[in-house]
Amino acid sequence: MYALAVHGGAGALPRVPFTRAREAAYRQGLMQALAAGQRLLDADGCALDAVEAAVAALEDDPLFNAAHGAVLAGDGTVELDAAIMDGNGLRAGAVAQVGHVRNPVRLARRILEDSSHVFLVGAGAERFAEQAGFRLVDNGYFITPDRRLQFEALQQQLEQAGAAPDALAAALDEPPLGTVGAVARDHGGHLAAATSTGGTAGKRPGRVGDSPVIGAGTYADDQTCAVSTTGHGEWFLRTVQAYDIAARLRYGGFSLQAAVSEAINQRLSALGAAGGLIAVDHQGAIAMGYNTPAMFRASVRSGEAATVHIY
Amino acid sequence: MYALAVHGGAGALPRVPFTRAREAAYRQGLMQALAAGQRLLDADGCALDAVEAAVAALEDDPLFNAAHGAVLAGDGTVELDAAIMDGNGLRAGAVAQVGHVRNPVRLARRILEDSSHVFLVGAGAERFAEQAGFRLVDNGYFITPDRRLQFEALQQQLEQAGAAPDALAAALDEPPLGTVGAVARDHGGHLAAATSTGGTAGKRPGRVGDSPVIGAGTYADDQTCAVSTTGHGEWFLRTVQAYDIAARLRYGGFSLQAAVSEAINQRLSALGAAGGLIAVDHQGAIAMGYNTPAMFRASVRSGEAATVHIY
User: How many C-beta neighbours within 10 Å does residue B66 have?
Assistant: First the structure.
């Protein structure tokens, strides 16, 4: 029995008209990513390979805020963060502030496999990528016309308000949709999680959110669950959100669904933190929770039909 | 009632002869840092101010692996990581890969106070520092003659072994002593934690360990406890060690001492992870645990005598 879930971010819908055609494109992107992971699980592949494939597909899709199509930082460049974790042996790899690697989740995977370190950032991460044989790409590869327009609108809005640089990010009252992630349980009972993002639109250069932080945005442990989060990254860093779900199972005897519901609807909502998460436990149960207007998400379990939802 | 504890790292003793005079110098450094925090707590200061002052004192002391006296990365430079967290409101600030800020813990504090972000790295963190009025220093300020010698010996040893760059860090079979941290509970019942480090000697440039990662190396929540860790950073990232202690209290009903003992002596030891941590709970209980040959540590509670220990 296997289980796989993917997300494309939780937040408010874009302020541009969210047409039926646009909605269909997001659904299609989610289903394609799910299929990329499912193909591997169907062929007895491991959870780690499945989450990497699903997240890489979403990174390549310009609709989502990860790699190609990522939001722009306050200086008009793209800075990417990603992490991946193997619940089998607690192996992990993470990168932040990467601007020239086509698929940050694949770089995180390579760190997991080949480095004595877990977390590499900036130029050091890209030097590792080069040495590992990754072809570096120009930062412009990641920037789509839609994101350029969004950036210019945000700049104009803040210039008019006379806001300081740090307010660029704070000006967005809802976390933007778009961070991507995947969680899986494979036939062998192993769990894995991966997350990838461009972060917050207009963020201060050098800002790292929760996505690449093991325990905050990404966590997996075969004995409990695998989790990928999306939302107000700063809050999820403070609540150590991904590991908080695992700890509720490990120490509190929570079911996965109860852990996710209580964390999202009670604790995070009480703190004023907006976002969501997807999780799968060692028995293959899937839970997806969010306290935002929408969360792009899709899931499938072996022998069952795949589902995709926005609201 | 207040409580304060500081650590100067857990690991094996340095391979240079650890003379009585040298041991006395370490004890004195720990006691001075403790006194810097205690002065504030005695004057009804808050836990957050106390841990910042204690860690800044250890950063300035060349004996410890933080700021002045930090270990060198594989490229011969110093890259500093630090974090601070306020258990009152879960506010946090963190920096990584900083090479020009005299007291990284004070920069982390400024992020906690003034930024909408929690975690800033590299040049972006230093740009924030400049804008906040910090005077930047040359990277050479951090490099002491002892650390230069250690670096050259490590280089030579690895060249002889024909080892790859990543093996530089892995070659150290014990985590080096020296990362610093502090935890406190103030008269008002608020908790705080702070940690600062130069990381692993010979680390790959861009490597981030557990110290600046909220949940891994540093965590504080008034409802549970404040924790600062030291040791094999990569393992503490994977086990989300600081928040794991808080979660054992929150969800498992553990006492602080039981949580620390079980985490260090059972879980971490079973995983082959070496290190230690200091913690204080909301009632002012202090727990300090390690599975290494030594941990530099000192603590005090209001109305009691201060103690300092190495073994």
Answer: 33
**Spatial contact of A246 and A227, defined as CB atoms under 8 Å apart:** yes
Mean pLDDT of chain A: 93
The nearest alpha carbon in chain A to B121 belongs to: A206
Q: What pLDDT is recorded for position B150?
A: 86
User: With an 8 Å Cβ cutoff, are A91 and B115 in contact?
Assistant: no
The complex's ipTM?
0.94
- B292 min Cα distance to partner chain A (Å): 20
A234 and B117 in contact by Cβ < 8 A? yes
SS3 B1: coil
**A176 vs A19: CA distance, rounded Å:** 17
CATH classification of the domain holding B25: 3.60.20.30
Range of the domain at A56: 3-309
Beta bridge partners of A207: B120
Residues 6 or more apart in contact with residue A273 via CB below 8 angstroms: A231, A232, A235, A236, A239
Q: Which of B124, B247, B271 sits opposite A247 (nearest CB)?
A: B247
Whether residues A244 and B247 touch (CB distance < 8 A) is answered with yes
Cβ contact A127–B240 (<8 Å): no
pTM of the model: 0.95
pLDDT digits (tens, 9 = 90+) for A72-129: 999 999 999 999 999 999 999 999 999 999 999 999 999 999 999 999 999 999 999 9
pLDDT < 50 stretches in chain A: 167-173
Share of chain B above pLDDT 90, in %: 84
Confirm or reject contact between B260 and chain A (CB < 8 A).
no
Predicted pLDDT of residue B300: 98
CA distance B106 to B84: 9
State the total domains in chain B: 1
From chain B, the residues in CB contact with A205 under 8 A are 123-124, 127
**Chain B contact for A239, CB < 8 A?**
yes
pLDDT of residue B176: 63
Residues of A in contact with B123 (CB under 8 A): 122, 205-206
- DSSP one-letter code for B117: -
B100-133 per-position pLDDT tens digit = 999 999 999 999 999 999 999 999 999 999 999 9
β-pair partners for A191:
A185
Mutate to test the interface with B, among A207, A221, A241, A254 (most CBs of B within 10 A): A207
- The answer to whether A257 and A210 have CB atoms below 8 angstroms apart is no
B180-204 confidence digits (pLDDT tens): 999 999 999 999 999 999 999 889 9
pLDDT for position B56: 98
